[in-house]
Design goal:
Distance between the termini: 4 Å
Mean pLDDT: 82
Shape: elongated
Number of helices: 6
CATH topology of the largest domain: Rossmann fold
Helix content: 25-40%
Strand order of the largest sheet: 3-2-1-4-5-6
CATH architecture of the largest domain: 3-Layer(aba) Sandwich
Radius of gyration: 18 Å
Low-confidence stretches: none
Largest sheet: 6 strands, parallel
Number of domains: 2
Length: about 220
Amino acid sequence: MTTTRDVVIAGGGRVGFQTAEILADRGHDVTIIEREEAVVSDIADEWVATVIAGDATNPTIIEQAGIEDADVIAALTGETGLNLAVCLAAVELSPSIRTVARIDRAAGESYTRFVDALIFPEQAGARTAANEVIGSDVQTLADITATLDIMLIRVAEEAPAAGKQLSEVRFPDGTLIISDSEGDRVARSETMLTAGDRYLVAVEPAVADEVMNLLRG
């Protein structure tokens, strides 16, 4: 079964909000913390996530967001220092939480000793951020078009497609399995969908859930 995660996002700007949309569409539970009242109002109107008004570096505010039960904190504001502070505060309250911070490229990658994953502004498309929030079993590789996702998906052990040849699985129209598990050949009808291996998949958003169910369970 696909694991549903509880995610807290600090920052409801473009990257934060669009990341929340993607994660919510994938079935995850999302809470956004945003300090600008106007942005809070806009987010609330969209009904994408629970939204809390306040400063995410304030322990009371992140406790209000349910940080102790959350699986991931993603600090996606435009301020490097603020994002790192949010992640560090979250770890104090929930030591096992996964931390993702958006930082300025000039800050360098040395910050990886403080957080689990880094997002840089020039590559901080919402799908990239969503990948880092959830981890590596499903990755949308780029914001290529508004209507097509290219994903790298690891086949889950209990998935309906696991252990079957591509020709044996009824994928919906709008799906294309691109590569075999080694990534060195285009997938063919005899390609085996092996549990634990990853495959490059092109999918239209309308059928993404069905494809995920087949490959992830």
